[in-house]
Amino acid sequence: MIVGTSGWQYTSWRGRFYPRGLPQRAWLEHYASRFAGVEVNNTFYNLPAADTFARWAEQTPDDFRFVLKLSRYLTHIRRLQEPEESVQLFLERSRPLAAKMGPLLLQLPPTLRCDVDRLRRALAAFPRSTRVAVEFRHASWYTDEVSALLREHDAALCLTDRRGHPLQPLVRTASWGFVRLHEGRATPHPCYGHTALRSWVDRIAALWGSEEQVYVFFNNDPAGCAVRDAVRFAGLAQRQGAQPSRVPTIAEAPVG
């Protein structure tokens, strides 16, 4: 199980997770010494140059994994139509990450209704060796046909949470898993409380074995909540028999 946060460049983490005097250029190195994976959302808005990916690779240890969110050009502008060129560009540009590349996140817009043919063509555009997690945001996608298509490609249905409630059916479609937690209901906002975190530990355990690979990312970054919640979640998962990746100590994860 790889546990981390959705990004690392948050100014609200300065003086909390990042020592106050640590320059921003050193934040990724600091993060990667405490976590083993990160979800990168800015690739959705702007695809970085190849030398940026190469620099990220140089700043992180060998076991670190980057999970990149695919371009909004593919998902929100083209709406999965003719995906081959967009997918190829994304893969070529991010190639410097090499062995540090984790799964790719394909997040669809909430206005895109189910279109199995578009999804089939999009998934076929990726090499079979590339793991893809798909986050649907329209309820029409939750069908047996779509689940079967995801299983055919070993693509994970991305499970997400907002305010302690799963936003998708709790269905496993791949040999691995992907979970995103957006917003909790605890204090300070948007932190997660103990009960919500434990519920997700239980849900994941019900779908995957303790040694199977599940990526869990916290996207509730304000006030340092994501860091603290990742630490607490990993502790709960470990006590239940899972094998989470490294996380900071709880003393390194203050909130508020």
From TrEMBL:
It holds the Pfam family DUF72. This is DUF72 domain-containing protein. It comes from the Bacteria.
